[in-house]
């Protein structure tokens, strides 16, 4: 028997996911569903699948699956969209919510336009710099900042940061000439990253503005990555390239990132947009 699965397609500056109301729908195999529903020819088309679920410890719980079916710990753009999804679907009735993720609890404050959520600021928590916790088998016991790494015969300096998921930040010029489809997978699957990695290729434009392209673990190049933007700004500050509040330009739009010195927390501000609702036939 064919099952009709209601879904909502949403995007945060082009980082698009399919959202399922887990309060109503039961998904037996989200890994397989993520691969099917994310396919841009035979499915809905997305960077992955997000399940919005009940939580025993927070207002909501988020499970996020990449387009290849692997489950990720956290996604910043998806977290903003979960906040809007929950409000629009009556799962919450407030502008401040706590979201349970595999990377810990995140606090989301919704922004409104005409009574409807249009975006959010997410407290992404503290960045993790200890290499074995990122994880990466490079650097010293305390951090991996501007460490040399050979990829495909070329030397790069990388700064490793975890925002609940692993990131390698690489600084360069002329991002438009970057052959990311070739070099991205080689970073992602290099042996120094035991759980693979997301890679941010960053061009510093000024002390308060950077440009970034991202290769996401399990998804390839995406138009945006919220945790990646946070990791990039942390990497910039650690290398004394920018101030702590930075506009991050991505292919799909811009995010405002602040690494607060007093709390050591990283805050991400950006839009959340509903594209359409639909039904997927299983």
Report on this structure.
The chain is an alpha+beta fold. The N and C termini lie close together (about 10 Å). It has 4 helices and 18 strands. The protein has an 18-stranded mixed beta sheet that branches. The longest helix is centred in the first third of the chain and has 13 residues, at about 75-90. Helix content is about 15%, strand content about 45%.
- Indicate the percent of residues in helices: 10-25%
Largest sheet: 18 strands, mixed
| Percent of residues in β-strands | 35-45%
Number of strands: 18
N→C terminal distance: 9 Å
Low-confidence parts = none
Q: Any key phrases for this structure?
A:
282 residues; alpha+beta; 18-stranded mixed sheet; globular
Break the fold down into its secondary structure elements and pairings:
Blueprint (H helix, E strand, L loop, with lengths): L3 E9 L2 E7 L8 H9 L9 E6 L6 E7 L4 E2 L3 H13 L7 E6 L2 E10 L2 E8 L23 E5 L2 E9 L3 E6 L8 H9 L9 E9 L2 E8 L3 E3 L3 H13 L6 E6 L2 E7 L6 E6 L1 E9 L1
Parallel strand pairs: 2-3, 4-6, 11-12, 13-15
Antiparallel strand pairs: 1-2, 1-18, 3-4, 4-5, 6-7, 7-8, 8-17, 9-10, 10-11, 12-13, 13-14, 15-16, 16-17
């Amino acid at each position: 028997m064919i099952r009709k699965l209601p879904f909502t397609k949403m995007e945060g500056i082009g980082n698009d996911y399919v959202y399922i109301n887990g309060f109503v729908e039961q998904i037996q195999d989200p890994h397989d569903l993520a691969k099917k529903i994310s396919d841009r020819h035979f499915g809905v088309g997305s960077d992955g699948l997000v399940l919005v679920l009940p939580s025993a410890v927070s207002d909501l719980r988020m499970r996020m699956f990449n387009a290849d079916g692997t489950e990720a710990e956290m996604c910043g753009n998806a977290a903003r969209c979960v906040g809007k999804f929950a409000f629009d679907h009556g799962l919450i009735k407030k502008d401040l919510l706590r979201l349970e993720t595999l990377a810990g609890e995140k606090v989301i404050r919704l922004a409104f336009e005409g009574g409807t959520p249009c975006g959010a600021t997410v407290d992404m928590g503290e960045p993790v710099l200890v290499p074995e916790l990122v994880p990466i088998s490079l650097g010293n016991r305390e951090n991996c900042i501007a460490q040399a790494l050979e990829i495909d015969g070329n030397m790069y300096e990388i700064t490793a940061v975890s925002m609940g998921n692993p990131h390698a930040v690489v600084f360069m010029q002329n991002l438009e000439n970057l052959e990311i489809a070739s070099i991205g997978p080689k970073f992602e699957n290099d042996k120094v990253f035991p759980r693979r990695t997301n890679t941010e290729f960053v061009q510093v434009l000024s002390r308060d503005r950077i440009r970034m392209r991202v290769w996401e673990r399990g998804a390839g190049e995406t138009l945006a990555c919220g945790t990646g933007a946070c990791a990039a700004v942390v990497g910039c500050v650690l290398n004394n390239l920018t101030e702590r509040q930075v506009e991050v330009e991505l292919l799909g739009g811009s995010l405002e990132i602040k690494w607060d010195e007093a709390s050591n927390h990283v805050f991400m501000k950006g839009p959340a947009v509903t594209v359409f609702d639909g039904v997927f036939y299983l």
